[in-house]
TrEMBL record:
Pathway: Amino-acid biosynthesis; L-histidine biosynthesis; L-histidine from 5-phospho-alpha-D-ribose 1-diphosphate: step 5/9. Gene3D superfamilies: Aldolase class I. The lineage of its organism: Bacteria, Bacillati, Bacillota, Bacilli, Bacillales. Its EC number is 4.3.2.10. Keywords: Amino-acid biosynthesis, Histidine biosynthesis, Lyase. Heterodimer of HisH and HisF. Pfam families: His_biosynth. This is Imidazole glycerol phosphate synthase subunit HisF. Coiled coil: none annotated. It comes from the Bacteria.
Length: 263
């Protein structure tokens, strides 16, 4: 039986590790390079780095003025890959095949595409053909719109696409994607648990593995994402930074709840 995975997500903005809430508020909490050394000692199965910077050039978020930051995404990835001893997925600012090739060359095992998959679906087909479906993760940011329907958003959750997530994910599957990172914008940073209804709808509509993300505030939420939502893996960002021994205690809780996990 395939074991359920526990995956920390590290959000980077302008070269800094940040805490996110509702895709709008971002608080600097650490150094993205140093953080991976800590995760290597943890009982997690994979690691996801997502660059949510708005500009091509990074700026120092600690200053009110626009001071250029010293580390680029590729420099961070190069340093992280030197000490990361678990499967590593990297997302953010991927627009073409060369961007994917560069990230894999720098040590990433998989890449996560969001806006690029929305704007240029054929890139997914081409990437899957060149690198293999196992390398291609589609990061799907979903919010409940004013009509009470789930909708896919692009550009870091700012742009409504009019896309139904079920139809969008099915199309990504047909194009050759290998995995779905399903992120609930409404649950981002609120610590109220996963959007179980959303996860269930997606899981029941695709054969692809689904990673649930957004809303974890208690360790029991991880179990719910698997047992109630049906996700193949559960991911979170904030809880891993603010709860001591969150990885080990999460695995223990999941095991106690009946989830098949690697201890």
């Amino acid at each position: 039986m395939v074991k359920s995975r526990l995956i920390p997500v590290l959000l980077m903005k302008d070269g800094y590790l940040v805490r996110s809430e509702d895709f709008i508020t971002h608080q600097i909490i650490g150094n993205p390079v140093h953080e991976v050394e800590r995760f290597n000692q943890w009982n997690v199965d994979e690691l996801i780095y997502l660059d949510i910077s708005e500009d091509e050039v990074y700026y120092d978020q600690r200053n009110d003025t626009r001071v250029k930051s010293s580390l680029s995404m590729m420099e961070i990835l190069e340093e992280v890959s030197k000490t990361c001893f678990m499967p590593l997925t990297v997302g953010g600012k991927i627009r073409n095949i060369q961007d994917i090739r560069d990230r894999l060359k720098m040590g990433a095992d998989k890449v996560a595409m969001n806006t690029a998959a929305i704007n240029n679906p054929e890139l997914v087909r081409e990437a899957a053909f060149i690198f293999g479906s196992q390398c291609i993760v589609i990061s799907v940011d979903v919010r409940m719109n004013a009509k009470g329907r789930y909708e896919v958003y692009g550009e870091h959750g700012r742009i409504a696409t009019g896309e139904d997530p079920i139809h969008f994910i099915r199309r990504m599957e047909q194009l050759g994607a290998g995995e779905i990172l399903l992120h609930s914008i409404d649950r981002d940073g609120v610590a109220e648990g996963y959007d179980i209804e959303l996860i269930q709808k997606v899981v029941n509509s695709t054969k692809l593995p689904v990673i649930a993300l957004g809303g974890v505030g208690r360790l029991q939420h991880f179990s719910q994402g698997i047992l109630k939502g049906g996700a193949s893996a559960v991911a979170a960002a904030n809880i891993f930074h603010f709860m001591e021994l969150s990885d080990r205690n999460a695995k223990k809780t999941m095991k106690k709840d009946g989830v098949n996990v690697r201890l």
